[in-house]
Inverse folding.
């Protein structure tokens, strides 16, 4: 019998077109998926687009478009990478897909709520739009901006639904220390264990609908919109809806270092709350930098991978990403 191998990338945020960081992650995952197929495995290679959240709304407003228009345009550009970079994914999820993704998210929310792991409370904190998350002192640069996105966080006071992840901190720690969930490279695992040692606080899982309508409504509470991260992480279940017994758990998540915290803490907490097995391995790559700065849409220093394929050919670009950019560290 063939072995089954379920590999995922993170799903790309579509407030802007794809850049070289997306290309790196997709090519890394593609090569692993192709290798597993050559070994005779039956492979599910899953990717997609993350299409909700305040960054989408604000970018659409800047361009004079509706959020739906913006995500449709950029989603097409991400889909085009399949041909442009010779990728071989065989499952693609959009988080705006009300038929394939939303039912998974709503079902998971209700299950977590029934366990008593969701509660409402008022909260005041520093919110970074780039992160789409509340941040803490350790995320600040010396000048008071977000160290990653170079923007000043907004101070928000809201009443939101919170996920009781603190309840699952011991289980997450055990996952990592026992090797039930392997993080590559090992240094990234140590980072997560350090965060757990500092103390894991419960995390906001919704935003007031009056402030954010572009997203999935919280089941049973039409005053709240589901937090973009609570929505997006569940894409890994949406890909295998109705086929979980065959494909779950994922063999490998391929993610960037900036979202490791979400995958190695929040995602593992969600899965524990749902009574599902965690992913076997999380592979963490670094950033592609430009003159020492992270290449990102928010900083405006991106390079278009499609333009490089036109100039040098797809095989040259794929080879360069794998051979010249360190697999687990930053590469300039």
């Amino acid at each position: 019998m063939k072995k089954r191998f379920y590999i995922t990338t993170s799903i790309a945020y579509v407030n802007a077109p794809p850049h070289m960081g997306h290309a790196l992650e997709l090519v890394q995952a593609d090569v692993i998926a192709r290798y597993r197929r050559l070994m005779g495995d039956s492979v599910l290679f899953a990717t997609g687009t993350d299409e909700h959240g305040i960054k989408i709304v604000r970018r659409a407003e800047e361009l004079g478009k509706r959020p739906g228009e913006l995500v449709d345009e950029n989603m097409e550009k991400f889909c085009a990478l399949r041909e442009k970079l010779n990728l071989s994914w065989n499952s693609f999820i959009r988080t705006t897909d009300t038929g394939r993704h939303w039912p998974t998210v709503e079902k998971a929310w209700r299950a977590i709520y029934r366990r008593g792991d969701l509660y409402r409370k008022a909260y005041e904190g520093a919110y970074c739009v780039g992160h789409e998350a509340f941040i803490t002192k350790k995320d600040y640069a010396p000048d008071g901006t977000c160290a990653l996105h170079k923007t000043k966080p907004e101070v928000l006071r809201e009443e939101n639904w919170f996920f009781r992840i603190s309840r699952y901190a011991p289980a997450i720690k055990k996952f990592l220390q026992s090797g039930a969930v392997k993080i590559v490279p090992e240094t990234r695992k140590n980072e997560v264990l350090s965060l757990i040692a500092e103390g894991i606080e419960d995390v906001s899982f919704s935003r007031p609908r009056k402030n954010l309508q572009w997203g999935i409504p919280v089941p049973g509470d039409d005053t709240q919109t589901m937090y973009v991260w609570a929505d997006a992480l569940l894409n890994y279940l949406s890909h295998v809806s109705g086929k979980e017994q065959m494909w779950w758990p994922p063999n490998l998540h391929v993610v960037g270092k900036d979202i490791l915290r979400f995958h190695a803490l929040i995602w593992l907490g969600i899965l524990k709350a749902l009574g599902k097995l965690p992913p076997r391995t999380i592979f963490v790559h670094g950033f592609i930098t430009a003159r020492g700065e992270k290449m990102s849409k928010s900083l405006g220093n991106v390079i278009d991978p499609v333009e490089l394929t036109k100039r040098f050919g797809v095989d040259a670009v794929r080879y360069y990403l794998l051979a010249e950019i360190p697999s687990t560290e930053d590469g300039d």
